[in-house]
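job 3f2a | input accepted
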Amino acid sequence: MSLDEYKRKRRFEETPEPPPKIEKQSKHRFVVQRHAATRLHYDFRLEMEGVLKSWAVPKGPSLDPADKRLAMQVEDHPVSYFDFEGTIPEGNYGGGTVMVWDVGTWQPLSPVPVNGEYVPGTEKEAAAMLAKGDLKFRLKGKRLNGDFALIHMKGRRPGSKGTEWLLIKKKDESVVPGFDIDKYDTSVLTRRTMSQIAGDKGSAKWTSSRPASGGKLKAAWLADAVARADKKRKALIKENAEDTAKTKKKSLAEKEVRTSSAHQSVSANSGSKKSTKKSPVSSVIKTLPGAIERPMPTKIRPMLATSVEHPFDNPAWLFEIKWDGYRSIAFIDGGSVRLVSRNQNDLTGQFPELRDLPKFVKASTAILDGEIVALDDQGRPSFSLMQQRTGFQPGKRRVPGREGLPILYYAFDLLYLDGYDLRRVGLEKRKELLQSALTSGEIARYSDHYPEKGRELFDVARKSGLEGILAKKRDCPYQEERSRDWLKIKITQRQECVIGGFTDPEGSRQYFGSLVLGLYDKHGHLIHVGQAGTGFNYKTLKELYDKLHPLETKTNPFHGEIGGLRKVHFVTPKLVAEIKFSEWTHETAEGGMKLRAPVFMGLRFDKDPKECVLEEAVPSAVPK
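job 3f2a | predicted structure (624 res):
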């Protein structure tokens, strides 16, 4: 299980294909992609062991058992390749148009029949069958259904690399004699033909994504905006020191508008203008392609973005700040609002100040998509403050929330307005309507977008200490699922930490669950800063456990007790791990800063544990 070959064959600064990433667990999905490269063929992929096991099938899969299709095994692909559809530029590996021909789920079939019939098998049996070269499985897709087998061809021709398999349909109720694959010539995701995808300017295709040189802001307007924001932030910090306790709470919300580092940094103009005059949007909506007159939906599942590693510039995309808070769909009906989380939980009661949200929307009925955020002393959204506000702390049960933290609703999409469903309207038009309908105020803000300039926005967000940015296709409809039409590009930090222990594994995990991490303070005490439970595969789990086990000790190397964790096996602090994380959280009730979303990247044998010092790792507080 490795994506090294996938990575080696691609230049990700030139191709829209997703970067290599092994997932922690598989969802047993399959995808068939029609691929017009040097020769037209079909790529058959099974989600397994955290990757997509892949075969190139020249004639495509068939529902006729008489068709024994040659399937050439190729390199594993990342799971994020599942819904990739677009054009790989010429000159790149696999250059050509890609269409999602079929999607669905699969399950392994036990190699031992029961009463003459194959029954569902296990993950272990699937891995054994694949290694043996006789993988039996059942598909449940939009076009392919029933039982199949992939058989590794033993007799190899001269010069063969041993990658030849046969894809065979088993006899069952899903058989279609004389199956003609050419009758199905459209994408199951977008209904487009290959020619439409190839000619669609909105398809996934980089026009120019060479890295900006020097790491500096190249656009003068952007650099000027950053300078203005920095000047305002310094002035506000000085002003804040003179505030009384009563005015401080109010100034925090005002500061966010002036110092919301990237939101205002990339535009010389304000994101939205206050107006007391109702916008004549009803007449405009009637003429919009995709707008449908219908009753307001009562349930919306948020459109989710796909993670990518690197920012890019592209005129077909819009770029926004990724607000670090709680995603929420706001249903506005008359003077009332209902806030619903991405998991369909009602959030209305948790944020009573947002009950006035309808006052800021110039419509009788509307559905907004946005983020509920809490602000830090620099006016930046902070997820750790949001956790304190709601009373949720990592590794603990819910505790009483912290009152007094200002809350804002950042609206970035409009899905329904005064009798019209806008989900099939293009994104840019939806945002134009949103900006006209929303009046920014004490609890509501319009989340602006910035065309083409993804790298500059990412650079500003990074310098401002924000979570990351989002890239969204200008003309994409609103899809109630995860999509590659929305991409999230997170900003991460790295830190060397001392390993002071590990926890027991849970579920199917072997060897250990997470690493317990620490840094030394100025007194030489090892301070607990969190635990990393991701970033491992089976091989690294075993290799790391073999190094940790001999170091086990009954002596707690940390200064003080560690709460909120299942049984910890302490170790002598001799190993240093490189950790990727998103931010340092604010001090929790039990004291101390913690790493947020830590991911294990590897061991550092070139650094002494005593060099891992807390004071050098945690950012200095803003002067007051």
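job 3f2a | The mean pLDDT is 80.
job 3f2a | closed
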